[in-house]
Amino acid sequence: ARLLEKALEIDLQNFGKEHPNVAVRQSNLANVYRNLGEYERARDLLEAALASDLKNFGKEHPTVAVSQSNLAKVYRNLGEYERARDLLEAALASAVKNFGKEHPKVAVRQLNMGAVFWEMGEKQKAKALLRQAYDFFKKRFGDQHPETQNAKQWLDKE
After folding, report:
1. How confident is the model over 41-62, as pLDDT tens digits?
2. Most buried one in 77, 85, 144, 151, CB count within 10 A?
3. Each residue of 143-157: pLDDT tens digit?
4. For residues 128 and 138, is the Cβ–Cβ distance under 8 A?
5. What's the chain's average pLDDT?
6. Residue 130 class from Cβ within 10 Å (0-12 exposed, 13-18 middle, 19+ buried)?
7. How far is 90 from 134, CA to CA, in rounded Å?
8. What is the per-residue DSSP string for 114-136?
């Protein structure tokens, strides 16, 4: 984390807080913090990265959708499921628009949204999304692919 913090500091000095390189550094560091369980630090960095991406690329750009998805994962970790859902809905709509319905990014976002709906207690909505993701992954990558297995584990829950 220290090296990424230093790289972010240097990029902030060289480019300013709204430069796309800074947003990339913020996202990378946030992912490390998320993996370390430091969700608030990750959230703050990802919120800044998303604001920068929105300003630089516009709301329907794939880079914005990645930032939305990453921030949604942190909100999910923090138990803020409605915020996670809203971000994932926007990221899913962007993926469908930019890549079409039969793209792995769409299935990954369906899987993530399904998990959020499950945790919100909306199991019917969750299962529909999880089934779509599972069917896509199984057809595209086979039974043993990690994403297929992940979707299956969610579907097997009661």
Report:
1. 999 999 999 999 999 999 999 9
2. 151
3. 999 999 999 999 998
4. no
5. 96
6. buried
7. 21
8. HHHHHHTT-HHHHHHHHHHHHHH
